[in-house]
Amino acid sequence: MHLLFSYGTLQLEKVQQESFGRTLTGTPDTLKGYKLGKLKITDADVLAKSEQEFHPIAEISKNNNDQIKGILFEITQEELDQADAYEVSDYKRIEATFASGIKGWIYIKS
To answer: Is 56 exposed, middle or buried (0-12, 13-18, 19+ CB in 10 A)?
Structure first.
């Protein structure tokens, strides 16, 4: 089992259903030291799932007070692979420790 932090379109039920075939369950959490930017999406498959031209993207902040609120979802290894396939190359997946002290995966700006 893996924990994946979502602060954007992976929170949408439509994206979850089309990417994983189910609605995910998770717990609210916060990532400190990051801020949200905006990324224009051009990948047709991602656009079809999210129906959003712009997606949020986590960027390291110089302000330690910056934070991103989201949800830590419980997913399988197969679902983590599917999430990797959903995210465009502008994102990279890293492991982070969240405000709760729990570690999980997050996609940030490459």
So the answer is: middle
At residue 28, φ and ψ (nearest 5 deg) are: -60, 145
Report the topology of domain 2-109: Hypothetical upf0131 protein ytfp (3.10.490)
Q: How far is CA 54 from CA 6, 74, 81, 101, in A?
A: 15, 25, 23, 30
Distance CA 109, CA 26 (A): 23
pLDDT digits (tens, 9 = 90+) for 40-89: 888 888 878 888 888 889 999 999 899 999 999 999 999 999 999 888 78
